[in-house]
Amino acid sequence: MPGLVATVRQRRADFLLSVMVLIWGFHFIVVKNAIAAIEPLTYNALRFLVGLPAVLIFATRQRGALRLSRRDLALVTVLTLTGPVLYQIGFVLGLQRTTSTNTALLLATLPTWTALFSIALGMVEVRWRLLTGVALTLVGVALVVLSRAENGLALSHDDLVGSGLVLGAAVADGLANVLAKPAVDRMGGLPVGIWKYFLTTLTLSLLAGPRLLTLSAEQVPPANIPNILYSGMLAGAGGFLVTHLAIREIGPTRSSSYFNFNPIVAALAGVLILHEPFSGWLLLGGALTVLGVIMVNHNTYLRRRAPAAEALLHAPVVSPVRESTR
Fold first, then answer.
1. Are 89 and 205 contacting, i.e. CB atoms less than 8 angstroms apart?
2. Is 0.70 topped by the overall pTM?
3. What percent of the chain stands above pLDDT 70?
4. Where are the chain's structural domains?
5. Residue 160 near residue 153 (C-beta atoms within 8 A)
């Protein structure tokens, strides 16, 4: 019976994550369509506000999930401002200026930036497969940014600015993930995640400012209401809840493997539905980016310090347990 329960849980988590891959993949074109009519920062605030009640209801049912000391809350606030907030701003402003395909592929590099910062801080073991994955990702990113459908490799001002904002978002969140690891290890992933969601919602609402307070029904086209609900309830709150469920039931490594499919779904959706430019260079760059990220995810190992009693006799021991960088 315990084995049957474990199998059901694993299949449930796998099924929900598979559904979320489709939801997250199509989310790029949903947001792209919406911010053509609604100011990007206002849309960002609206979608987080829509998803917030579901996250708070979930939080109230988790004993002790919201309990943090003032010092820990201040730390999580700083981590939120330097990670999720910058990520969301760069995401929506970048998506406004470049294609959803480019945005998806560039945001998919987040694990690579996390790995690079981890290497710089001596947190992970440096392996040639990890470095190969990083190199492939960077080459893929360059091709994605430079790819043009008709003119070979080129740059446009909007694409360059948009891609720069998106890449900046991925880099900022990658650094924040590394800096947040000690806090997550000490406080737990769930409390940190819930407070980050709440603080991100609050900050984005403050940034939207007067536009959000004076927003009227006439300023939100009826056709975009499903977009807001999709972003807030499905991609936002739904993604948050499914991710934490999956991490608890099948672990972070298996859960993180599903994120590799997001840019593929998003790229196909952008080309087929929005008729975004497509070229051989974009295909090659996207393939290298995804392959590089997969290699990074599967070859990132935490470096574990030797016990104090043996520190003078042994070199640092590498943990055989693979840690997700997502």
1. no
2. yes
3. 86
4. 2-121+157-282
5. no
